[in-house]
Design brief:
It holds the Pfam family DUF2383. By secondary structure, this protein is mainly alpha-helical. It is built from five helices and no strands. The N and C termini lie far apart (50 Å).
Length: 151
């Protein structure tokens, strides 16, 4: 059986990813002049806040301590780099560039969730919630892709 500490570490990584995602979208909302994107990005912020809350609940339930709402992934991580790219891209306020960067960040988040779900030792109830969150992340990515293609 996997130790609770290992599960807590894995879940805290997903909390950090959602923190990065929130920060990336906050920057995108701040810098975009496109009301359609502004609305969508605000939805993604709320989505990540909800994900983060669910993850923290799981962590507490298995006697762990969740990282803070402001903790980010390590500077060297792929997720952090993805959201840094978003933060840089939105300064130009170019819709296509912003959407490409956001899609890149969404892809990185999807990969992180897929990796976490592959852990056979996760309790079924946690895996079920992660699978639901992953499904929502994939739907968000599809929205971004559709917006990129509908110039």
């Amino acid at each position: 059986m996997i130790k609770n500490e290992d599960i807590v570490d894995d879940l805290n990584e997903l909390v950090k990813i959602n923190n990065d995602r929130i920060q990336g979208y906050l920057k995108a909302v701040e810098d975009t002049e496109d009301s359609q994107l502004d609305h969508l990005f605000n939805e993604m912020i709320v989505q990540s806040q909800n994900f983060r809350s669910q993850l923290a609940d799981h962590i507490v339930r298995i006697d762990g301590t969740a990282v803070s709402d402001t903790t980010s992934t390590d500077v060297g991580s792929k997720i952090h780099r993805a959201w840094i790219d978003i933060k840089s891209a939105v300064t130009g306020k170019d819709r296509d560039t912003v959407l490409s960067s956001v899609t890149f960040g969404e892809n990185a988040a999807v990969e992180a969730y897929e990796s976490a779900i592959e852990n056979d030792k996760l309790p079924a109830y946690i895996k079920e919630d992660l699978t639901k969150q992953l499904s929502e992340l994939k739907a968000a990515r599809e929205k971004m892709d559709a917006l990129k293609e509908s110039k």
